[in-house]
């Protein structure tokens, strides 16, 4: 059984999707044992508490530089014997030492079909604003491994979602979450845990 850490910064609906799938017995090879938030007071922390999962706030602002932040993250992973890390709306950047310590063991969910609308500056509603501005008729979500290139690691899973006339960034974000993210991320995590737990 692998120990999974989920890193969050906001509402934590993707975290919830993972916890719900786990509660239904959906992940026989992994368990969320730690939630790390980059911000105090976010609802994702409530979700962790409600599920009885240990949580910690590790904020980039509390550290003088990226290296100290990375060291704190790595030590926390080590203390908690973390095998797999999931970035579920985590807004801080992971440095090289963290990425190198977990090769092909850090997953991220991005709310577009990579390579569209991804990379530096494309996060949250900005992704959906860009998709609407371009006028694409199909968007979606991507789960990928994290490497040193922002949104550039190997793609694990993707799901397409229709863009509808009259969509706003908010309505599109909601549809992408409901129809793609909440399904794709728990399923990808299950697959990765299964592969690694052999
Ligand atoms: C999601 O849209 C995810 O794709 C992106 O950040 C958002 C997080 O939402 N990386 P939530 O905190 O899981 O509700």
List keywords for this structure.
198 residues, alpha/beta, 6 helices, globular, binds 5-O-phosphono-beta-D-ribofuranosylamine
Describe the fold and architecture.
The chain is α/β, with parallel strands linked by helices. It has helices spanning 13-23, 43-50, 66-79, 96-101, 125-134, 169-196; strands at 2-8, 30-37, 54-57, 84-87, 106-110, 138-145, 155-162. The protein has a 7-stranded mixed β-sheet, covered by helices on one side. Helix 1 (13-23) packs across helix 6 and helix 5 (125-134) crosses helix 6 (169-196). 5-O-phosphono-beta-D-ribofuranosylamine is lined by residues 8, 10-15, 44, 88-89, 109-111, 177, 181.
Summed over residues and divided by their number, the pLDDT gives a mean of 97
Structural class designation? alpha/beta
Q: Cα distance, first to last residue?
A: 10 Å
Bound molecules: 5-O-phosphono-beta-D-ribofuranosylamine
How would the global form be characterised? globular
Q: Whole-number radius of gyration?
A: 16 Å
Order of helices and strands: EHEHEHEHEHEEH
Q: Kindly state the percentage of residues in helix.
A: 25-40%
């Amino acid at each position: 059984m692998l120990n999974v850490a989920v890193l969050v910064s906001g509402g934590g609906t993707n975290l919830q999707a993972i916890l719900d799938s786990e509660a239904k017995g959906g992940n026989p090879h992994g368990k969320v044992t730690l939630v790390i938030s980059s911000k105090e007071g976010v609802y994702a922390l409530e979700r962790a508490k409600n599920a009885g999962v240990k949580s910690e706030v590790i904020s980039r602002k509390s550290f003088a530089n990226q290296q100290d932040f990375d060291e704190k993250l790595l030590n926390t992973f080590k203390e908690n014997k973390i095998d797999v890390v999931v970035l579920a709306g985590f807004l801080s950047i992971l440095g090289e030492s963290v990425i190198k310590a977990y090769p092909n063991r850090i997953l991220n969910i991005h709310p577009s079909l990579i390579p569209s609308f991804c990379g530096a500056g494309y996060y949250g509603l900005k992704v959906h604003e860009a998709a609407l501005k371009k006028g694409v008729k199909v968007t979606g979500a991507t789960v990928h491994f994290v490497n040193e290139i922002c949104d550039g690691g190997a793609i694990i899973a993707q799901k397409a979602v229709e863009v509808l006339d009259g969509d706003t960034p908010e309505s599109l974000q909601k549809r992408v979450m409901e129809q793609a993210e909440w399904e794709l991320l728990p399923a990808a995590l299950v697959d990765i845990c299964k592969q690694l737990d052999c």
